[in-house]
Structure formats: structure tokens, C-alpha cells
Amino acid sequence: MDFNEIKNLIQQEGGKIIVVENGKPVMVVLSFEDFKARNAKKVQAQTPVPFPQEELQGEEELTIDDLPL
């Protein structure tokens, strides 16, 4: 099976190919579109933690004199 046949299989069937070495799976080959879709879902699932603004209100501004020498 050549590369073009593998590429057509993945594109037409929308599947993934698992590469097995010594009886153990070592990698998964999938289309770039599927890869991008998976990463987009991961980014959407990660919600940023808001920084508490009330902690900043009581602090004064730092100056160069505050740096250790």
C-alpha cells in the first residue's frame, strides 16, 4: 500500500490509522482537519481562571527601589 492509498483511506472514510510496532500501538495517523478539530475542542474546554481584582486594590505600586540587589 502506498502513501496515496493511505491518504485516500483517511480522507474518504474519515478514519484514523493506528501504527503498531512489536504488538503495541505507537502512533495514530489522522487527517489534519480532524487534528485541528480536536485541538479546537481542547482550547474551548480550557476556561481561563479570572484573576481576583480585590487582591490588587490594597497593594501599592512597586518602584525600582523595591528590587533586590
Written description of the protein model:
It is elongated, with a radius of gyration of 25 Å. Helix content is 42%, strand content 16%. It has a two-stranded antiparallel ribbon with strand order 1-2. It contains three helices and two strands. A hairpin with a 2-residue loop joins β1 (17-21) and β2. The model has no long low-confidence stretch (mean pLDDT 77). By secondary structure, it is α+β, with helices and mostly antiparallel strands.
N-to-C span: 66 Å
Biggest sheet record: 2 strands, antiparallel
Q: Please give the radius of gyration in angstroms.
A: 25 Å
Q: pLDDT below 50 for ≥5 consecutive residues: which ranges?
A: none
Q: How many alpha or pi helices?
A: 3
Strand arrangement across the biggest beta sheet: 1-2
**Strand-and-helix sequence, N→C?**
HEEHH
The gross shape turns out to be elongated
Structure in a nutshell:
With 69 residues, the protein is α+β, with helices and mostly antiparallel strands. The chain is 42% helix and 16% strand.
Structural features:
3 helices, alpha+beta, 69 residues, two-stranded antiparallel sheet, elongated, 42% helix, 2 strands
Write the layout of secondary structure elements.
Elements: H1 3-13, E1 17-21, E2 24-29, H2 32-45, H3 54-57
Antiparallel strand pairs: 1-2
